[in-house]
Amino acid sequence: MVIAFLLSFFLSFIPFSGNVINAATPTAVAPVSGLSFTQGVKKTVLENGLTVLTKEVHTAPVVSVQVWYKVGSRNEGKGESGISHQLEHLMFKGTKDRPVQFGRLFSALGSQFNAFTSYDETAYFGTVQQDKLQALLTLEADRMKNALIGAEQLASEKRVVISELQGYENSPSYRLNRAVMKAAFPNRAYGLSVGGTKADVEKFTVEQVRNYYQTYYSPDNATLVITGDFATEPVLKAVKESFGKLTKNQKSTVDSQERAVSQNSQPPTPNSKASTPIVLKEPGSAALLHVVYPLPDIKHPDVPAIDVMDAILTGGRSSRLYQALVESGLASSVDGSAAELIEPGWYEIEATAAPGQKLEKIAQVLQTSLSELQQKEVSAEELNRAKTILQASFVLGNQDISSQASQLGYNQTVAGDYKYIERYLAAIAKVTPEDVKRVAKTYLVPAKQTIGFFEPTQPDGQAGTSGSGSGRTVENFSPGQPVDPAELAKYLPPASSSTVSNQQPLPQQFSLANGLRVLLLPDRSLPTINISGQIDAGTEFDGNQKAGLALLTADNLMNGTQTKNALALAQTLENRGTSLEFSPSREGVSISGEGLSANLPVLVQTLADVLQNANFPDDQLELSRQRALTSLQVQLDDPSTLARRVFQQAIYPENHPFHSFSTEASLKSITRDDVLNFYRQHYRPDTTTLALVGDFDPVKVKDLFNQAFGKWQAEGKPPALNLPKVPLPKTSTRLNKVIPGKAEAVTYIGYNGISRKDPRFYAALVLNQILGGDTLSSRLGTEVRDRLGLTYGIYSGFAAGINPGPFLIEMQTAPTDAQKAIASTIALLKQLREQGITESELNTAKRSITNSYPVELANPSEVANIILNNAVLGLSPAEIREFPRRIQAVNMTQIQQVIKDLIQPENVVIVTAGPGDTASK
């Protein structure tokens, strides 16, 4: 439900989670002997030039279909900035034979689908049950040549794209990145944002976009990737039947442009004024630094050494820049990445200043760290750690078939060969200390850098004024009739006749004598392990006066134990490419760990050490407090997080645990004794649940857990809360928060809802799928996004946990469109309340949910989360298997009751945050 504004390498069309590929080279190697990620791949080139990559992976009954077009923002000429991204949107508007929103077709198939535009490529991907493979092929072949690009489609999607671009403008880091990149590459397309400019987007004509489509969306400029549970030869036959009949375009633009690019393989000459900082003084929160250095293209032999260099500089807590900037208290975060693309790319470093710290000082320390790398060779230990981090991240990042398909598609499209990754991995293993020193000297040159500072004009991160209203809207919109799934079905390609009969295995469950619960689900398909866990130590125990206590406690777990300090803990994990993280939420602290299966003992032992022996050193506690204060500033400056905070506090009374949020005062009031007491009181074995999925022996793992956790003891009964019942608001309430300097508004609409164990939950989930479960196929998406073009993304959902959470609708709009979008949404809720849904809608929603569920089960880390959540919520271990049946059992009577109980358009809380002029006049 959270709109993710992706700010740097690409623009994701559908703003929710999906397997999205970074424009930087995938930087990792396969560290496990004999493990190859291109083994079994078959490459076929059709007569029309389409490259087809197939890879059978029979670990789950699902398949991923991806189409990668070799066109992105680098192909755009003057006045065309953003046209690749605009075309990506239009590719969902239907075809000549299927004049319907393709998102509805994908949703009906149960596909987890998405798309993105980047500098060098535009990609479309979907993952479905195996019997839907032919349907995906048919749809992708259809829109490769027959997309509807007319005046009506372009006009509506222009508004949506502009809403998306304006959303990015809300981010100071986006604005700084844009200024730095434009200065670094003033005469290259890479210097412009992938999404383009509002001025260019507004001027796009139908003929202009259609010509661009006809030029680049051609079989000979595309790669089709299919991975998963299928037989190669029959699938290739189906591909030839669907894609083979498409003709390649007759234009020579692609070939001529590639010839021009091939002559430009070296890094560009830097801007002569690059070393002078670009300074943006604008409304914002935290101070930011952004540095860019030119790099060669992806095929340059220095690329592996550059990526190892990046891992040494920014790869984890033990990295040089983290130690120099974050551990010193100068910065609250630092990150780096190398963009190695078809044309010469760049290396960038970003840092967020800690409260009260000067960007000039951060830049000075940064330069000192880079100079040390240039002058002295790295140690063998540091080099091996960097390589291992790259190695393990590559293996762990390819645990699901969608990611494997994306790796193949990226390498074939950008590097020109899907086998590129094997040469890259071999080269990573051969990088020497001399290589790292050499590339640092060659590319991290002060005279070649472009550096930018963002200096906020609101240093305290305080939001602006607020107002409230009755919520009575002037507009009286009449929504269009809901889309009839029966009408939609005639455009849906048939699924194959085969049935998916895979029986989902159930986790083994056992408890230690101290009450710690463990769930085990072996999966030998890859040499990886995934740990998901929860401790009942969430922010619900904070209270308003000490809001942030659960956060600071969780953030400090990895800052030292009785035997290891923070750096030693980090190196213990990072030396093996293993990760372990803790993140607090309302109802618990989430544990997330992953690594190669050989490192399971180290991961479990480290987890056990920090849960039992954390010592919370004063200096680290103070650093984490400063980072929390910086994060708070950023949250108060972000329309989405500020609106959610105000929305939550408007729904829940002050004495309710869901009302409390961190403030500057509450964070500063928390002492080390507060943290120690919270740790001792809430971190207990009998409030901890762990789920392990991956390559392991259950018998040995039980012994491992007993050895690591068996001595952990707790006294008395665990703390418990008795949450007060929260009634609906008596009337509709409207609140507005103004944040200076923002371009786009974010709105939340809703009220308190239900818990996960509420007997109405399954019916509510099906109803929500119809209402707003997907921004392209739902009623809200169809009306507010597709028909009216008022929002980039709109969603609804029931945040149902152990306790009732809010029912909410979230949308992003231009400030002048906020009121219209709100009025349209309320009208849709009234329509739903008064007219209900159709039997066809009910059946389609149930199929969509149940068809997409096997896709989630194909990802080991997702499975770990599912079995953990089921256990924490008090559900049966069999719920992972029974869930689809419970959805299918939902009937119309239950839906009608849920509408009556849970859809209350007259009692909503409406909160909008962003620039002014969003309230009703």
TrEMBL record:
Name of the protein in question: Peptidase M16
Every Peptidase M16 C-terminal domain range: 203-390, 669-848
Segments for region (Disordered): 248-277, 454-487
Listed Polar residues bias regions: 248-275
Family the entry assigns: Belongs to the peptidase M16 family.
Pfam families: Peptidase_M16 (PF00675), Peptidase_M16_C (PF05193)
Ranges where the Peptidase M16 N-terminal domain occurs: 52-197, 525-651
Originating species: Nostoc piscinale CENA21
Gene Ontology MF, one: metal ion binding
Superkingdom as given in the UniProt entry: Bacteria
Keyword annotations of the record: Coiled coil, Signal
First and last residue of the signal peptide: 1-17
Coiled coil feature spans: 356-386
